[in-house]
Amino acid sequence: MQRVIAPLVLTLAATGAFAHGNVSCPTVPKAEMRPQMELQKKLEAEGWKVRQVKPYNGCYEVYGFDAEGRKTEAFFHPKTFERVHAEGQADRK
Amino acid sequence: MRRVWDPLVRLLHWTQAGAVAACWVSGHWPPDDFDAVHQTAGYVAGAVVALRLVWGFAGSRHARFAQFVRGPRAVLAYARALRAGHEPRHIGHNPLGAWMVLALLGSTATLALSGWLYTSEWLWGYAWLSALHAALAWLIAALVAGHLGGVALTSWRHRENLVATMFSGRKRAPDTGDID
After folding, report:
1. pLDDT digits (tens, 9 = 90+) for A57-85
2. Residue numbers of the domain that contains A52
3. Residue range B41-68: mean pLDDT, rounded
């Protein structure tokens, strides 16, 4: 049984790591991270409707609608507020 | 042997087991790569519930809610008998199992609905809905654990493999004292 389980877990873990690597931001010291509210205000000034901001993998993850009104899930650098794109993925609708 | 679970009951049962498992895994996988799998499996789960509800009125004898859903008094009596170790064997669902069926159907329907709403423009992206969706998933995880425990306990108590029964659809014919 363990002979089956161990490789399975390793494979799953490896796949997970790849999936996880899709979006990530460089580690920024906590003190240098700008507040989430600031990002939300900036996006809203640009015409976004923001419904949720939360930290994800060193980025800020934003759910809402972009300036064109499209349903959007996007990632931003927590210090520069630059948009971070998932590897090999176009913008999600 | 007795035919108990008709083919559609069995098909829906195992489809649901697969769909819920697929939803669980894809839902806990970071971050969005499995969204398509998660959503498809969620729609399947919702459709299974809808079909099962219809089949609960139009299906074969032991598939019908009217055959197995009992009131609180019957459920309590069964639970007491179970504690005392002399609960009768049911050919269909026993009264406790019946409520597990309803709880699983109800929570799966709510979970699927909340997931679908989360992708709708109306409720897209709200943290509270995401939290509700996750809480419901954990509720279902607990119910599934209870369901598996109940199946194991009942199988052991009445010396029959109920998992195999859900594949074959057949059960040992009723003995005296069994409830058909």
Report:
1. 899 999 999 999 999 999 999 999 999 98
2. 2-84
3. 98
Q: Which residues in chain B are contacts of A9 at CB distance < 8 A?
A: none
Nearest C-alpha neighbor of B161 from the set B176, B173, B171, B174: B171
The CA distance from B144 to the nearest CA of chain A, in Å, is 22
Q: Per the domain annotation, does A92 fall within a domain?
A: no
pLDDT score, position A26: 85
Q: Identify the CA nearest to B89 among candidates B3, B1, B175, B2.
A: B175
Q: Identify all chain A residues contacting B31, using CB atoms and an 8 Å cutoff.
A: 19-20, 22-23, 56-57
- Mean pLDDT, chain B, rounded, equals 96
The model carries a pTM of: 0.84
Q: What is the CA radius of gyration of chain B?
A: 18
In a domain, A93, yes or no: no
Answer whether residue A49 is part of any domain: yes
Q: What is the CATH number of domain B2-171?
A: 1.20.950
Q: Does a structural domain hold residue A10?
A: yes
Give B16's contacts (C-beta < 8 A, 6+ positions apart). Answer: B45, B48, B49, B52, B108
Q: Which of A20, A63, A65 sits opposite B31 (nearest CB)?
A: A20
